[in-house]
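Example (one chain per record):
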Amino acid sequence: MEKHCKNKHELAHIVRQFGKSLLQSGELSPKQIKVLYNIVQCRTASLGGHEQVCDDCGVIHYSYNSCRDRHCPKCQGTKQALWVEKLIKSTLAVKHYHIIFTVPHELNQIYLWDRRLYCNILFRAASRTLHSFGYTHYGCETGAVAVLHTWGQNLSLHPHLHCIVPAAGYSLSGKWRHIGKYDNYLYPVHQLSAAFKGKFLDSVKRELRKLSAMDGFKVCIEKAHQKKWVVYCESSLAGAEHVIRYLGQYTHRIAISNQRILNVDSTHVTFVAKDYRDRAQKKPVPLTGEEFLRRFSLHVMPDGYVRIRRFGIYHHSTKLHLDLQFVPDEKPDIEQMVADQKDETASERILRLTGFDVTKCPHCKEGRLIVIKTLPRIRSPSGHLPSMLFAKLQ
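Predicted structure:
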């Protein structure tokens, strides 16, 4: 259960207002319908919750449960904080590089046809590229933590990978080796781009031939082959904790957050987006309500698909077999060790990680909320999910 301040405009409100026409169009898959249904129900009485009373002012509050859907903007903040805390101790105490692997939009047809296949190829091409460059440039096994995003700032379809790569590796002779001669790039980006392009297109063509689907995508593959591919490399990041907190900005991010929604009227949704063609200036983007939800639905991932993956020396199986020092060799923080060892309640942990006190009374800001009743989930009769979602829309 999560509890946060409500925004003036929320994704759930947009689904309720404009979801009916999109649902009637027949464009949504069963998975997309399920996600929209979860978002509409999130933190409502349908999911149950708790009745609480303030021990100071006596005001009654109701706190409803989260849907926990990974596409819901209300359910990611605490998950991100918990993930950052867990990973912060397993990161090498070296500088890291942020490398972004992007693919030309001409290949979006393949993503729309089979997104699981497309994203698997994207992960595989990036990992193989980094693996080969580690050996050819430095003679060692390197690694990465990779996070998949499928959207651009304006909710357009733009699949790409954010990779955090350590400036370190393990040689074939079993020796630890630091890599990365320059602060602004780990490998020459032009070579990196060409290698990634070759591996991605080769894998795409091989997989499509296996599925006897090559003929339908020959034109888009040829267009992508003629384009110049770009792999971005940002300046190195120092310190394991800084690296993970930086990556944490990307891990549980979804296509649109409630904070970016500026206005919702009877026909349109306006949200803020960075315009990278104009020095990343933030600008308002108006879309019709149905188009906004259609674009959002493009970024719903298949059931069980893993968006965060580790390669090389950061893969759990590699860490089991290599004698690597994954914890910084520094003086222990006694206070922090004591804090880690003592038992924390869920609310105490959320307060420590996010700074948000779920037990403080939002009315008087002084008292503590005490649970006086558990509110059960409202069990909907099993039935046709589109019909159940339709019944919740305006």
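Caption: Residues 213 and 328 are 49 Å apart (CA to CA).
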